[in-house]
Amino acid sequence: MRQSSLILPLVLIVFGAIWFLKATDILPATATLIAAGLVVLGVVVMVADGLNKQSVVAGPMLMYAGAAVYVKHSYWLGLSPILAVGMMLLGALLLLSRSSLIAEKAAKHRRGPQTPQP
């Protein structure tokens, strides 16, 4: 006899748990979770990729996006100043990435058929 898939029961359990946590106000607001996720993703980019011309822009911008979502959601600042600071930060990071002090991203080596060299 074929065993049925575990996907439906697991999806029901996960969504039920999330619904329960949101209904009891244990889980923070969705914007807070998105902000935290963006900050964590920015840190992961910086750690996993190392310091190179791409990660020096992508990592801090993801962290800034997370902070901007949180600040906007908390009504500390309006959208216009958040975007203005983001533009200045992006410009500064792009200038920094052009520096010779920041290394290029290392190419991943592909494993494929090796041809003998004469």
Structure description:
The chain is an all-alpha fold and 118 residues long. The protein has a domain at 25-97. Helix content is 64%, strand content 0%. It contains four helices and no strands. Helix 2 (30-49) packs antiparallel against helix 3 and helix 3 (55-73) packs antiparallel against helix 4. It is flat and about 60 Å long.
Summarize the topology.
Blueprint: H1 7-23, H2 30-49, H3 55-73, H4 79-97
Shape category: flat
Proportion of residues in helical segments: 55-70%
- What is the typical, i.e. mean, pLDDT? 86
Q: What is the ordering of alpha helices and beta strands?
A: HHHH
Strand residue content: under 5%
- What radius of gyration results from the CA coordinates? 22 Å
In total, how many beta strands? 0
- Poorly predicted runs of 5 or more residues: none
Q: Count the helices. How many? A: 4
Report on the biggest sheet: none
Which structural class should the secondary elements be placed in?
Answer: mainly alpha
* N→C terminal distance: 58 Å
What would the keywords be for this entry?
118 residues; flat; 4 helices
In short:
The chain contains four helices and no strands. The protein is mainly α and 118 residues long.
